[in-house]
Design brief:
Elements: E1 2-3, E2 10-11, H1 14-29, H2 47-93
Antiparallel strand pairs: 1-2
Amino acid sequence: MEQRSHGQEIKMNFEEVAHILDQMRESVALLKLPMVYDGINGRNQFEFLEEWTERESQIRSFLIQYIAIVEQSIVDTKASAQLLKDQDEAIGRN
């Protein structure tokens, strides 16, 4: 992005913005929370294990919600950037 301090022109490098958003999407895809106690559950009757797995399930749910929100934000931002690019091109043709 380029902005002139005293002028009225602001330039957006759409390819750079799109590339950064793609990198963000790839990074979000790497967010994972493996089930640590999948193999232990049923063999261990400790009370804390039930509480632990319940909390882990809640954290997993929050992480899934967070990932969905971030992914939608990336999609929305990319669409907005595309709209700005299209508008800028349309103005430039006139």
